[in-house]
Amino acid sequence: MKFEHLLAARTLKIHDNAIREILKVVSRPGMISLAGGIPAPESFPMEIMNGLSAAVIEKYGSGAFQYDLTEGFMPLREALSVRLERKGVTASPEEIIIASGSQGFLDALGKVLITRGDRVAVEAPTYLGAISAFNPYEPEYVRLETDEDGVVPESLERTLASGSVKFVYLVPTFQNPTGRTIPLARRREIARIIQTYDALVIEDDPYSDLRYRGEAPPPVKSFAPDHVVYISTLSKILAPGLRIGFCAAPPLIREWLVRVKQGTDLHTSTFNQALAAEYLAGGHLERHLPGILALYRPRQEAMLTAMAACFPETIRWSRPEGGMFIWADADGGVDMETVYQRAVARNTAFVPGRYFYAHDGEGRGAMRLNFTLAEAEEIRRAVKILGEEIDWASQKKSGSVSEMS
Ligand code: PMP
Question: What share of residues in the chain are helix, strand, coil (percent, to 5)?
Fold first, then answer.
């Protein structure tokens, strides 16, 4: 039986997420992956979770396995309220809601906000998973310019002044894919602009706790609380498999997010939320996080040092103070798709930059490199291979390498 004719017109617009496809290649034995946005498995607090699993059952009994509020498990929302306050986001436990990862919120926000043809403003480049989440609701994307300090305020202002943008989606801290962070003054400027135009911003903040150097600027939400839907996750600082995302949104948006979640999955796993609640309330995150930073910091340093030694001078790259990614860009000088194919044949993977743009034709000379999953020695080996393949591709482009070499 062929059921294609049964698929909704909307469904046919959903494409395979390119990174999922790349991650399938990457799981081949012997591959060094700089491709995913995946935490190191050795960063998971396995022993603590072992003890907490029993403690959750002891404390909540059958309640940990029962249906619960769509809004989320109250002890978790209480613990998150305390954490958010420390970041400068004031939200009572009742004002915080939980979803199955921040990805769950991206889908729900698309469902709540986007009517076919609505204009949604995104950074160029932006998080590919947000595009995948919004696409089924059939928006049109408006491109926001970015520089080394993230989204350019003039570009945001021009876009909002041109009218009818449904919402703006931003990853202001250690952005995926570029690793860039919007500095404090620019955050204030962005807050002023969105307040002036009465615009709605989705601030996606999965990475701000992974800071290896420097001072953290407060979330954009803290400067424009009524105009920002703030979403974050425990995926990068505890464990992505728990699927715990959280959100502080203006009341009307929050109420609708809860309504659509009722139809999606009723609520996020009670047991997982209870585990996360005990983890946070017991102070485990504060004790464990420095170990995660100590694991990732040298990996990032190894990558930056190897890049300086192995990449040609024509390539520029970001030097983020945290997060999981480094973005390298050869502009028009190299076709990174070719580099990808040749690097994978040598068991080294990354994600070519073009996948992170809402519009075709951009990012062909760029690459996203992840430094959290592989060990420093593997990173050094992988970057050396990438340097060789970039050299090969740039010589090919300038015509000095034959197809056979
Ligand atoms: N937003 C961004 C910017 C991300 O990088 C990710 C993870 N790659 C997510 C959202 C989704 O994370 P999760 O659903 O695990 O919370």
Answer: 50, 15, 35
